[in-house]
Amino acid sequence: MVMIFMYGELFSQINTNSPYSRFGLGDIENQALGRSIAMGGTAAGIRLPFEINIINPASYSALPLQTFLFQAGIRGERTDFTYKQNVSTAYGAGITSLSAAYCVNKYWGMSFGLTPISSVGYKINTEDSISAGEHQSKFLITYSGEGGLNQAYIGNAFSYNGISIGVNIAYVFGVISRKMASSLNDGSYSSILLDESRVNVSDFSLRYGVQYTVDSILNEFNSFTVGAFYENKTKLNTDVTRFTNNIVIMNGNQISDTLADNTTSYSSVGAPAVIGLGFSLSTKQFITAFDYIGRYKTDVELTELHVNHITNSSTYALGFEFTPDFMSKRFFKAMNYRIGGYYSNTNLELNNKQIKDIGMSFGLGIPAKKSRTKINIGFEVGTRGTDESELIKEKYYTINLNFNMADIWFVKRKFN
């Protein structure tokens, strides 16, 4: 079998062009925001007053009183694909998140917003043949897909004596469309088989978080935070619409046979359980953070999503930030300098190999003058997969822009 991969302008929520997004719910998106992206994606133990951290909902209670935060993120990406010394390049861009957070009182913080969960976007051509005696017929199969899942969430966190507990309630929704077209042309005989499925997902999920912060450890660190989060296995309700048609042309005569015509069935697909553990050490100049995230597959399968290649996954991430003097009026001294890295055994196992994702990140936090806005810029460079064992190797380069705006609400003005 010969595989030739192609790319097109296939956009889901934030766009992907990866053949690996064919399996399961697609490419699982990293929901890290702002500074976390440039710090290797670390977030479980990060607890800062002017940052929205949706990965661990326990962090919302860190907001200062009467502070309202709003953030928006966009991303651009270039990916180089290598398969048997053949190289192709794809580009993608889109909005990654819209979130807001508010401190209700000194014990209670909340957040709400819209973020992507997964993205699907691929086009794959495979060429094969069938032999009958000395006669051989070749046919071409094209697989394509687009779409993905989003979540609209609202979260609350409550803190007391250094302990914070939070929860996100999310409405998960989205559509994943997949097509398969098989064509055979053998002189006076030709055949075209078209199979299309549309999986519509809509359901709710919960994520729980906890953080514990100790200040002035050994008079060396200003604060130490350890955090954890958990998202339980979820059966997401789906309705699947299917259309299958076969066209045969023989001796100039055309026969069309519709095998399935927009038939709808109701089922469910399993979203994996997710557990995360991490910590951060913070001073006035430095932040160091480490995360572990595990995803554990469910037993709920849906044939249309090819979940038979899904397995358990694990990710390790490490990140650093340096700020020369956050109170300085000098631009470069008040800027945040960030770097990080990550290693992931992804949730895909193909040809007896678990797909790995290895990368590094770096970036800046740029404070805006005369406002409470901060512009976070993060870059990622990494590789996923391998060009061995009939697989595809991806080299990706991404740029993430995050605009973080803060305001003070409900302040009583005094007039003389």
| Multimeric organization | single chain
Low-confidence stretches: 1-14
SS summary, helix count:
2
CATH topology: Porin
H-E string: EEHEEEEEEEEEEEEHEEEE
User: What is the mean pLDDT?
Assistant: 85
> How many distinct domains?
1
Structural class: mainly beta
Strand order of the largest sheet: 3-4-5-6-7-8-9-12-13-14-15-16-17-18
CATH superfamily: Outer membrane protein transport protein (OMPP1/FadL/TodX)
Cα distance spanning the termini? 83 Å
Query: What radius of gyration results from the CA coordinates?
Result: 25 Å
The coarse silhouette is elongated
CATH architecture: Beta Barrel
What does this structure look like?
The chain has about 425 residues and is an all-beta fold. It has a single domain (about 1-235, about 270-410), classed as Outer membrane protein transport protein (OMPP1/FadL/TodX) (Porin), CATH 2.40.160.60. The chain has 2 helices and 18 strands. It has helices at about 35-40, 330-335; strands at about 1-5, 25-30, 65-85, 85-105, 110-130, 135-160, 165-185, 190-215, 220-230, 235-250, 255-270, 275-280, 285-295, 315-320, 335-350, 355-365, 375-385, 395-410. A 14-stranded antiparallel beta barrel has the order 3-4-5-6-7-8-9-12-13-14-15-16-17-18. Strand 12 and strand 13 form a beta hairpin. Mean pLDDT is about 85; it is low at about 1-15.
